[in-house]
């Protein structure tokens, strides 16, 4: 299990270092996409290991644990934000969220028709929701 | 009593785990009881977290929400940048290249278009409300993408805690809207096949919103939408503090 966690930690650290270096190169004082780079590294690394297939599945739980902790950690993060000041700023968050959702919805019919529309799934045995 | 408080403060991170665990349990109950599971427990929990942060800020007069109250200081460690980045990266585990290829052109286009549209929407709203620095505008744009991309971008760029809170809230609004709205708009926008679901995940990006919304529409669509939505977060964290920031900075008058 520690192997999985160690691999994850290595990917995150490497990604953050790459992000910092990119930031310096671009002349911005920030970490440029470090988390994104780290995700790519993890995907590549675990893909390799799994293909080699020598008992990596035992180390897997060291990564899966943290992936299950993701939402709780986000909740903890939410509870440490400066919400008092954010509330004072008015309906910025509401409008930004609504705006982004609407734009995305409007774009879907265009995209889904690209290269021909797929046939709908056959009706499910037991009708769901709607 | 004092002795107990001392133990809880000294072991702040452990107390935070216990506390957040309780909050998650409570949120899942609310989700089941009041919305029949339609609004995910995770969204309820994040909203409650923001409410607690408001309470904490009011009580302490500080800028770090509930963690400014010494008893809850451990939350700052649990929800801090280190563990957050660690947990976010771990969610990429299990993604396979063959799946990425299966998503194909539509998936890639939807990801790029979805990110750009969200950044534009969030950025324009930020501008309209008088934010004029590139860091705040980019962070709010990133928050309109998802409540993860927002704070990751904000931390990387050094945004103010107020703007970070706004970016989380913006992402949360989107997540809840997608969760609730998907079943209603699905027939109108042709969301009834795997390809459309993949495009939907890429356009909306919020993994919790998309998987919740698709589950209420047709359970079989969930894996397709959730897959592209996962890429969205990764790509957003990659592009937010880099390309989008440089673009915003380039557009603004010096």
What does this structure look like?
The complex is a heterodimer of chains A (130) and B (254). With 130 residues, chain A is an all-alpha fold. Chain A is built from six helices and no strands. Chain A has helices spanning 2-26, 34-52, 61-68, 70-78, 83-88, 92-113. The model of chain A is unreliable at 125-130 (pLDDT under 50). Chain B has 254 residues and is mainly alpha-helical. The longest helix of chain B is centred in the middle third of the chain and has 32 residues, at 97-128.
SSE-based structural type of chain A: mainly alpha
Low-confidence blocks of residues of chain A:
125-130
Which radius of gyration of chain A do the C-alpha atoms yield?
A: 21 Å
Largest interface, with counts of residues having CB < 8 Å to the other chain, equals: A-B, 84 and 128 residues
Total number of helices of chain B: 12
Major sheet of chain A: none
How many structural domains are formed by the residues of chain B? 2
Pattern of helices and strands of chain A: HHHHHH
Q: What average pLDDT do the residues of chain A reach?
A: 79
Fraction in helix of chain B: over 70%
Helix content of chain A: 55-70%
Order of helices and strands of chain B: HHHHHHHHHHHH
- Terminal Cα separation of chain B, in Å? 56 Å
| Largest sheet data of chain B | none
Global morphology of chain A: extended
